[in-house]
Amino acid sequence: MITLLSDWKLRDPYIGIFKGQLLKQLPNTQIVDITHNLELYNLSQTAFIAKNSYSFFPEESLHIILSGLSFSKDTKPILLVHNGHFFLGEDTGVFSMMFYAETNWNAYQYAGDMVLSITEKMVTMAAWVFQNSYLEHTTPYPELKLQISHLSEPDYNTEKKIICGKIAYIDSCCNAVTNIPIAMFEAVGKKDFTAIVATNRPLRITRCHPFYNAKESDLFLTYNQLGFLEITLFNGNIAAIADIKVGLDIEIRFL
Predict the structure, then answer these.
(1) What values do phi and psi take at 148, rounded to 5?
(2) Same-domain status, 172 and 136
(3) Is residue 99 within 8 Å of 146, Cβ to Cβ?
(4) SS3 state at 236
(5) What CATH number is given to the structural domain containing 169?
(6) Fewer CB within 10 Å, N- or C-terminus of the chain?
């Protein structure tokens, strides 16, 4: 199985062409689109979605990250092996954003024909993965390009009873997805809270439903499929209405 993640959008034919290139080399492969609507060159957003979606797929899946490519023929793509999965892309810094705090990964750099375009190189590497021959055609890549995401890890201050997080993603329904795991929120074990989002006119949220509740007339937190809290409003594009942007701070204060 191959998954694709990009900022290429779907209006143009490029994703379709890339899939055609893959299927020529690997005709029996199943290709799944995660999303192609990421913000252009937004590596933090790309890393957040890639890191938190890959585990929903079977082990030994290949996850191809196409966001932020330079399209230079001099580029040598990177294959990263982690947690039973393969990740393929250009070392733009997105891999260090995904796995900065982890050490149980191995990376390999393309060492084949440099006449090929970057997409052709990636298709070739995909074939090596499924032929189990990638070690023969790559060189070890011991150090990833360091790029620190502005989406710092969320933190729970036990003394002040405050979770500090960030807005990580705005989905197609204009809900604001935070980087605060549901498990962290539930571990506090308190129902009374005030969540404050640092917009120009700070938003205050005091309700949470573990599902999308059409009966709720006010802003509320809900659980999303990636395993994080998100801010939503029934029948309302809350991110647009309240000018919520990726990278804004959110604090949840427990009473």
Answers:
(1) -90, 125
(2) no
(3) no
(4) strand
(5) 2.40.30.90
(6) C
Return the structure tokens found at 185. Answer: 């929120």
How distant, in Å, are the alpha carbons of 35, 84, 108, 193 from that of 229? Answer: 20, 27, 35, 14
44 Cβ contact list (under 8 Å, min separation 6) = 97, 149, 150, 151, 168, 246, 247
Per the structure, the complete domain to which residue 16 belongs is given by: 2-140
Question: What tokens appear for 17 in the block?
Answer: 């062409």
Which residue numbers in the chain have pLDDT < 50? none
**150 domain-assigned:** no
Helix (H) or strand (E) holding 19: helix 14-25
Query: How many Å apart are CA 239 and CA 209, to the nearest integer?
Result: 18
In this prediction, residue 150 carries a pLDDT of 62
Query: Would 48 be classed as within a structural domain?
Result: yes
Residues β-bridged to residue 222: 209, 230
Which of these, 164, 182, 135, 127, lies nearest to 2 by C-alpha position? 127
Angle, helices 118-130/14-25, rounded to nearest 10 degrees? 40
